[in-house]
Amino acid sequence: IPKIILLWKQKHLMEIIILFGSNIKKYREQRGYSQRDLSDKLILLGINLYHSDISRIECNTLFIRDFEQKAICKVLNISFDQLFENTDKYFD
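Now predict its structure.
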């Protein structure tokens, strides 16, 4: 595979992660939760994401696993579709 294609894919992967973190931040703020509030609610579900982890997720420096995504959706009362909204265009 030529290098240019790998760079293109990497660039778009980063944009997806950026949108993902932005969506978490958007819905967290809509619910009136601080990063610490979200972290505390996740810890009650057995998900050890601390407020500093939430910050890193929203700043796109920490990628989260599928079970963490599910827990975040549960706490924020959103669907996976909402979590991934505005990312479909990168999968065409």
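The radius of gyration is 14 Å.
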